[in-house]
Amino acid sequence: MKVIVVGCTHAGTAAVEQILKKHPETDVTVYEREDNIAFLSCGIALYLGRIVNSLEDMFYADPTTLEGYGAKVHMKHNVLKIDTKNKKILVQDLETQDIFEDTYDKLIMSTGSEVGIPPIGGMDNPRVLLCKSYDQAKKIYESALNYPSIAIVGAGYVGVELAESYANTVHDVTLIQSRDQILNNYVDDGLSDAIIEQLKEHDVKVQLGERVSEIEDGDQLTIKTKAGHAYKADLVIVCTGFFANTDLLRGQVQMDGYGAIIINDYMQTSDPDVYAAGDSCVVKFNPTGELKYVPLASSAVRQGNLAGINIFGNIRKYMGTQSTTAMEIFGYTLAETGLTLKKAIANGINADYVVYHDYYRPIYMPTNDMLTIYLIYDKDTRKVLGAQLFSKHEVAQSANAISICIQNNNTIDDLAYVDMLFQPNYDNPFNYLNLVAQQAIAKEDAVKVE
Fold first, then answer.
1. 74 is catalytic
2. Ranges of the chain with pLDDT below 50
3. Residue 10 annotated in active site
4. Distance separating alpha carbons of residues 127 and 137, to the nearest angstrom
5. Distance (Å, rounded) from C-alpha 402 to C-alpha 134?
6. Strands 27-32 and 72-75, how do they pair?
């Protein structure tokens, strides 16, 4: 069987490795238009913040890795056209400019995502930069060395991480967000406020409810907003989200309204010989059961692996995702999974939440840290829908535990009494995940009494 993989970041790399480990006889050809693969863009902030010394450390594989498995890897080759009806692709070698055709039995689309470029005047200014790829990260790093003040447009994960990185490297930082909170896809208002407080304590100027309309050139750049305000900076980094890079298959396979490829439980598109994985396609979002566009490296790796399994038949189903993520900010861990309360209500769910705020282990221990947990649940079914955790204590793995609860349709009653270890170094006789669920039960019991 001949397999062509178009695009080779996280999903493409995982697919190639899976195919050739299990089926080394397979003819696998990779076409990648960049000169690198498997770049961890989530590590850009670590590099910009001088936590890691080399951006090259953010590559966990290279073309020779895949060639070692037996793949034919063509770097700096741009796929110009895919003809699914005749199973052909048109490719250009970006170094020689030669154009040629290739054919496939199965095709895996793992072209990833592109940075969304908002309709803002002045985006073509050389001091206005985007942040996702290796080359973009290098440009940001080199530019920031020469500019003391930086404005970041967009306060999602990337924007907040960059704000922290530049605050830690003694830059003057302004974070501009169009919404009335930061990290709106990940946390509810209370935790947004707590993180904003941390940013402000480290001299980051946070501007909420400010939609940027234009960036004017000058000795300093002037960032104008629709509210009529203006902010000054030497350098602007725009982090306003991503969109699926799927133009090659437009009109040939089913896509959602945002251009993300729709897949079934086996990573298969509406064309049975075309599979998709990673940021080019939707995920099954388990808290609501809907197909949704959520570009995450963790999902990309799993989907790529499954595409590599399932091109040989419907072997292993995709379990979906809770979109579990985490970040470190000024010594705190923020981790979350599933739905926020706002998102749950917007999806028509009769949802509620409780907030647990206490020490993570017994007060007699010589050191301790406060822990905040937001637990979101369905009042009708009592199912756990989501959680957000914030502490100087490492709580990322607790978000993984809640993710499993959501995956398995567990209720607050299950979580309240599920077996968890007790050891004073780590927690109380009831783990804090038990305790926050017991708090939710008490809240629901009080409603019944009324």
1. no
2. none
3. yes
4. 13
5. 33
6. parallel
